[in-house]
Amino acid sequence: MKNNQTNQKLLVEIKRLKKELKKKKKYGLVWEDKSEDVVEMCKENLPVLKEVKSKEIITDKNKPVNLLIKGDNYHTLSILNYTHAKKIDVIYIDPPYNTGAKNWKYNNNYVIKDDAFRHSKWLSMMEKRLYLAKNTLKEDGCLICAIDENEHANLVLLLEQVFPRYNIDSITIVHNPRGIQGKNFSYNHEYAVFVYPNLKEKYISNAKRESTLVRNFRVDGSNSPRNTAKTCFYPFIIKEGKIIGVGEVAPKSFHPKKQTIEVKKGVFEVWPIDIKGIERKWSYSVNTVREILDQLNTKKRSNRFEIYRSKDEAPYRTVWINSKYDANEYGSKLVNSITGVQFPFPKSLYTVKECLTAVAKNKKNATILDFFAGSGTTGQAVLEMNIDDNGKRKFIICTNNEGNICTEVCYPRIKSVIKGYKKQSNGEKIKGLGGNLKYFKTDFVSYKEPTDRNKIRLTEEAIEMLCVKEGTFEEVKNRAGFKIFKNSEHYTGIIFDQLVIKRFKKEIKNIKGKFSVYIFSLGDDSFEDEFEDIKQKVKLSPIPDAILKVYRRIFK
């Protein structure tokens, strides 16, 4: 029997290798794909979520609900492929750097420097997760991956394969100004690789300048007479000392008598004419200047108004150097100050916050995912961003519990940041940022065969998954055969027995609001006929077929 199983495995492997050989890749990464236990187990055991109610944190029901999920990130991403398909705005991850220093395990074994398949194992692990992660991103979503020199080159090639037609830019961040001694060079930097859509409009936000740049908006000098630009000779309109608009470009034949002209009482036109009376030009065309009026101001000098541009932002540079990115000061020491735990190599809080700000500054309702959450830096960064600009961003952070990282570091840190804490170093009280957190762990439903019994079990075990999908966590009805949950915007109904549909409809008759209704079905019947009379009120979905379709695609 054992020999037959071995032979069968060999035949499967030979078939796979033949298939690989037929692929004629002309350019890109090629590596020896290494199977992974956590992936293989999903062929017979389907991941689900189970809430740990005792770890729930609710400080303000008007704020978003954040999620912390304990479990292997492959399983979590599989679940999110159902609950959050095309719903994530930003993914920030800090995966293992594969240094060979016993800081990363593959199939429960440390990957050391002498491992001949060290890079293949890392690429196999990352590829599986990146493809799953991509399915959760919105069309205009962005992925940011922290990495160092050990896998940076491989990562970029892998990302080009997973995200074709995306922009891929590497930012160099000086995270250790003291340097990490190497054999030849002392490394003091790492990278943040940004993967974002190739859109016509600007995608990356501007960075704040350390000091505001102020300059005259008129271009002076021997190379800037009026005739060198067709659309840059026009008037600014000023009233009560403030710029209220711009006029149209003047024809060539028009020559203002002076730089500042009072067109009616208290209203002035200001032209780009220097103090010698020479006609110059403004820095930008009239169409462009209308978009940056909020950056312009004016000062009156004698009988003239001068126009100035105050610029406190500029495009991000590709090298970030600032003491706030110091991973020891604002990473290790910060985590220790909050939790009392010595945690190796956390990111500087400000590194993560800056990366997120670059892509989510103007997305105040963004959902941000980190499936290598580690000590929970991404969660704290999101909470602080919301405090800074009154945003309603929410995070989903996922980590396993190897070395008790989830239970002793990540969760305590997020809890302390939300509710407040005393610094371990000096007892100073730090006020909590507020917020809400739901804590889940991954679990599994045995599903070797698509039997009716297995489908019933999967439906019963999928309640938390459906609540996560809809964001409805407050249970309002628990009746025989169905349950109802809600949030501030809508309701979720879960019907386990088709025979109670009439009772369910009667129960929701007087409830105002929209319903997402999930109905158990051995097939894919959505029961639209039974809800025809209230079809405007409900959105129907059969379960567990919709879940199984996602899992069949992933685990095939």
What does this molecule look like?
The chain is an alpha/beta fold and 556 residues long. The chain folds into 3 domains: 52-205 and 317-441, Rossmann fold (3-Layer(aba) Sandwich), CATH 3.40.50.150; 212-315, no CATH class; 452-555, no CATH class. It contains 14 helices and 31 strands. A hairpin with a 2-residue loop joins strand 5 (101-106) and strand 6 (109-112). It is globular. The two termini are 26 Å apart.
Please summarize what this structure is.
With 556 residues, the protein is α/β, with parallel strands linked by helices.
Q: How much helicity do the residues have? A: 25-40%
Please state the overall shape, judged from the principal axes of the Cα atoms: globular
CATH topology of the largest domain: Rossmann fold
First-last Cα distance? 26 Å
Strand fraction equals: 25-35%
Largest sheet properties? 11 strands, mixed
Relevant CATH superfamily of the largest domain: Vaccinia Virus protein VP39
Mean pLDDT reading: 93
The tally of beta strands, per DSSP, is 31
Uncertain stretches: none
Query: Radius of gyration from the CA trace?
Result: 29 Å
Number of domains: 3
Number of helices, counting only DSSP H or I runs of 4 residues or more: 14
Overall SS class:
alpha/beta
